[in-house]
Specification:
The protein is α/β, with parallel strands linked by helices. It is built from six helices and nine strands; from the N terminus they run βββααβββααβααββ. It has one domain (4-110, 153-224): Spore Coat Polysaccharide Biosynthesis Protein SpsA, Chain A. The strands form two sheets. A seven-stranded mixed beta sheet has the order 3-2-1-4-7-6-8. Strands 5-9 form a two-stranded antiparallel sheet. The protein is globular.
Length: 227
C-alpha cells in the first residue's frame, strides 16, 4: 500500500488554523508548527523546532526548510503533499500523486506569469522582496542564460515522489538557491531547474485546467500569498 503524508507548516503565527474538511483513510495528516493548537483534532502535530536545523531561524525560513525537506521529515513515506497554511483542503487530493513528472514533483503552474523576470518586477512593485538582493538574483539568472518566459510555478501545494532520486537532488539544490538569494522560492525553483538541465515540463501540473485559485479540491486565502 502506498504511504502518503499530507502536511502543512506554519510558524510565527503567519497563518490561522484551517483544518482539512476531508480526511482520506489512506493518508496521514501533519501540521508542523510552533503552535500545537493549529493541528486541531484530526491532524498530527510536529514541533517545528525539533525539525529545523536552528530554532533561531525566522518563521519564513523555518517554513521553507520544512517545505523543501520532505525526504528527511517523512522518510518512511512514498509520497508527500505539502500545502501552505493559506490553503484549506476541501476535497480528496491524494489523486494528485499520479501527476508527478520526471522530476518527481507536481505543482500548479502560475496563473498570471510565466517568467522569473516579470515576477521580479511584480514583487518589487509589491514591496514583497529586498530589491537589492532581487536585482543580484536577476542579474545572476540572466548571466546564466535563463530565458525569458521559461516558466513559473505557484508553490503553495507540492506533490513529491519521495522515492524518486531526482526529486531529492532537486530539493537540495532548490533549498541552497533559496538561501543564497532574495528568498523567493518560486524564482529559485526555476533557476534550479535550469541549472540542472531540466525544464518546467519535468514538473507535473497539478491544476490542468485549474490554477491554485480555481482548483476545486482546495480553498486558497489569496490575501496571504505575498505576505
Amino acid at each position: 500500500m502506498v504511504k502518503i503524508a499530507i502536511y502543512s507548516c506554519v510558524a510565527g503565527g503567519y497563518d490561522k488554523k484551517r483544518e482539512p474538511k476531508v480526511l482520506e483513510d489512506e493518508c496521514d495528516y501533519f501540521m508542523i508548527s510552533d503552535d500545537r493548537e493549529l493541528a486541531g483534532e484530526s491532524v498530527t502535530w510536529i514541533d517545528i523546532d525539533k525539525v529545523v536545523p536552528s530554532v533561531d531561524m525566522s518563521p519564513k525560513d523555518k517554513n521553507r526548510f520544512c517545505k523543501m525537506h520532505p525526504h528527511s521529515i517523512f522518510s518512511d513515506y512514498d509520497y508527500s503533499i505539502y500545502y501552505d497554511g493559506s490553503i484549506q483542503i476541501v476535497k480528496p487530493i491524494s489523486h494528485n500523486i499520479s501527476l508527478v513528472g520526471r522530476s518527481g514533483l507536481a505543482i500548479h503552474r502560475h496563473r498570471e506569469r510565466d517568467c522569473i523576470y516579470s515576477e521580479g518586477i511584480f514583487l518589487s512593485w509589491l514591496g514583497a522582496v529586498d530589491k537589492e538582493l532581487l536585482i543580484k538574483d536577476i542579474e545572476r539568472y540572466a548571466r546564466a542564460g535563463v530565458p525569458k518566459h521559461f516558466g513559473l510555478f505557484e508553490c503553495g501545494m507540492i506533490v513529491t515522489d519521495l522515492k524518486n532520486p531526482i526529486s531529492l537532488e532537486l530539493y537540495k539544490n532548490w533549498y541552497m538557491e533559496y538561501l543564497i538569494g532574495a528568498k523567493r522560492d518560486q524564482q529559485a525553483l526555476i533557476y534550479t531547474l535550469w541549472s540542472m538541465g531540466m525544464t518546467p515540463d519535468d514538473i507535473g501540473d497539478i491544476g490542468g485546467e485549474y490554477n491554485v485559485l480555481t482548483n476545486p479540491d482546495i480553498s486558497w486565502d489569496r490575501g496571504a500569498h505575498y505576505r
